[in-house]
């Protein structure tokens, strides 16, 4: 037990320092002055150097050999520490530190290039990020380079397995999308100005409706909405357009899904490897089920219609037309604003391109052309500016290669969870119509969230749903929903 306790004490400090690194990243995107970018990069690199040294401390190997787990949770903790140690010791300290420094710098360069529609200003930095990520993949890989990076976000998954799932989904999604776009049912966008302050008030109301604990969180603005931290400090951000309130509302609900997952994890797991979400796919299941299956449902949009009318005045449409508008299917450029049918197709595009970047099949210099050609093929429209194309997402600038497919996996998992949850809790829609997602949150907390990383990703979903994850419930949900809205 001494070895186990010593290992946990070491891990606790490492986890706490990791949380501090997360706060530095949050500050960089939300509060930090622009002129501090170079200084912050050095700070982040220094902290990463300390973290890498702790994660590769030779004592960990000794402790792991001697430690005895008193219970299944402890056994899982030992397994995850061992996995982390194995990966960390394969990466040279120089590489870990340089990755932290360049991705910190790259984030600001990306944001400025995006704002200025200047792809050329970002490409040299992205080339350096890709070079370093390829080197990292080579250190970690036992076969497929992309799989080595994917394992950081969805442990146990492989690119081949994900590609097979995507191949099964693509045909039905495109066919349903084509039927919807051929329907005579149309929705006109709201033609009003929605003041920023009023939008933020409504965003806070929506966050509260989904159970966000404001004593342990906060809402701020950023270029790209995100959720950060966990436990007693789970923060979210959003962004606002005064002509499109839905971007703010549904970004907020999406990030609340992430944050309430973290807030619900058993406090006994705090500062251990199981004290946070088990994978990004499972994490996305929480954000997507809140945003879509709950937040875009007819009962909730009926409540939202009333709240928006109270806040902004007459919207010029009834609740049914408003529900159709919230769920309008169109060939838009922006992933985060995409409808549920096109969203997964956005992810498939990014998945294929980033696999090719890591394996060397695609070079950064050719990325914009490859993106634009693939986008026109998949969505039938031409990209005319970089912010609508490959510069729209922050992920590649900060080295998150392997992250994108977890968004679509999250949708698959959310489909399974939604099916099981509604079978178990029939009053969900009645409460959503009152602006209360409490029964849904309670089911998710009890069956999934409180366990944190106790089980591997697929087992986490299977435990909650009683069946192995499959894309079938998601496709059935989408078919029923959009056939009803578009009267197909």
UniProtKB/TrEMBL annotation:
A molecular function (GO) term: metallocarboxypeptidase activity
Cofactor: record remark: Binds 1 zinc ion per subunit.
Superkingdom of this protein's organism: Bacteria
PROSITE patterns cross-referenced by the UniProt entry: PEPTIDASE_M32 (PS52034)
Catalytic activity: Release of a C-terminal amino acid with broad specificity, except for -Pro
Gene3D superfamilies listed in its UniProt record: 1.10.1370.30
Record key words, sorted: Carboxypeptidase, Hydrolase, Metal-binding, Metalloprotease, Protease, Zinc
EC number: 3.4.17.19
Active site residues per record: 255 (proton donor/acceptor)
GO biological process, one term: proteolysis
Cofactor(s) the protein needs: Zn(2+)
Residue positions binding Zn(2+): 254, 258, 284
Matching InterPro entries: Peptidase_M32_Taq
Entries under Pfam families matching the protein: Peptidase_M32
Record's function text: Broad specificity carboxypetidase that releases amino acids sequentially from the C-terminus, including neutral, aromatic, polar and basic residues.
Entry similarity comment: Belongs to the peptidase M32 family.
This protein's name: Metal-dependent carboxypeptidase
Record organism: Thioclava atlantica
């Amino acid at each position: 037990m001494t070895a186990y306790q010593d290992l946990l004490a070491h891990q606790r400090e490492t986890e706490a320092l990791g949380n501090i690194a997360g706060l530095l990243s949050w500050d960089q995107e939300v509060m930090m002055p622009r002129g501090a970018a170079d200084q912050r990069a050095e700070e982040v690199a220094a902290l990463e150097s300390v973290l890498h040294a702790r994660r590769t401390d030779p004592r960990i190997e000794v402790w792991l050999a001697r430690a005895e787990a008193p219970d299944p949770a402890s056994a899982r903790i030992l397994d995850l520490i061992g996995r982390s140690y194995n990966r960390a010791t394969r990466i040279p300290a120089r590489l870990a530190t340089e990755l932290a420094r360049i991705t910190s710098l790259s984030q600001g360069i990306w944001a400025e290039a995006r704002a200025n529609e200047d792809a050329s200003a970002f490409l040299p930095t992205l080339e350096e990020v890709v070079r370093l990520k390829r080197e990292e993949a080579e250190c970690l890989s036992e076969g497929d380079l992309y799989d080595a990076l994917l394992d950081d976000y969805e442990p146990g998954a492989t690119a081949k397995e994900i590609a097979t799932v995507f191949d099964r989904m693509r045909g039905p999604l495109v066919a349903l999308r084509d039927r919807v776009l051929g329907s005579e049912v149309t929705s006109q966008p709201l033609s009003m100005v929605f003041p920023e302050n009023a939008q933020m008030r409504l965003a806070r109301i929506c966050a509260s409706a989904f159970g966000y604990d404001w004593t342990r969180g906060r809402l701020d603005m950023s270029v790209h909405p995100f959720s950060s931290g966990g436990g007693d400090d789970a923060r979210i951000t959003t962004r606002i357009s005064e002509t499109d309130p839905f971007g703010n509302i549904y970004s907020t609900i999406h990030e609340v899904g992430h944050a309430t997952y973290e807030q619900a994890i058993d406090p006994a797991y705090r500062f251990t490897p199981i004290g946070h979400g088990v994978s990004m796919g499972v994490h996305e299941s929480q954000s997507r089920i809140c945003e879509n299956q709950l937040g875009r449902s007819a009962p909730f949009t009926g409540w939202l219609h009333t709240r928006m009318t109270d806040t902004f005045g007459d919207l010029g449409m009834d609740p049914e037309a408003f529900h159709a508008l919230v769920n309008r299917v169109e060939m838009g450029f922006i992933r985060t604003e995409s409808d549920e049918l096109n969203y997964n197709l956005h992810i498939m595009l990014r998945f294929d391109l980033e696999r090719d970047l890591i394996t060397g099949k695609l070079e950064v210099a050719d990325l914009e052309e490859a993106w634009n050609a693939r986008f026109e093929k998949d969505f039938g429209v031409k990209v005319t500016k970089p912010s609508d194309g490959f510069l729209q997402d922050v992920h590649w600038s900060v080295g998150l290669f392997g992250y994108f497919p977890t968004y679509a996996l999250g949708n698959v998992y959310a489909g399974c969870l939604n099916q099981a949850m509604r079978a178990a809790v029939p009053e969900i829609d009645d409460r959503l119509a009152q602006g209360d997602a409490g029964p849904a949150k309670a089911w998710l907390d009890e069956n999934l969230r409180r366990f944190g990383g106790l089980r591997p990703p697929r087992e986490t979903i299977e435990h909650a749903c009683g069946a192995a994850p499959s894309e079938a419930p998601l496709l059935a949900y989408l078919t029923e929903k959009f056939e009803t809205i578009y009267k197909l």
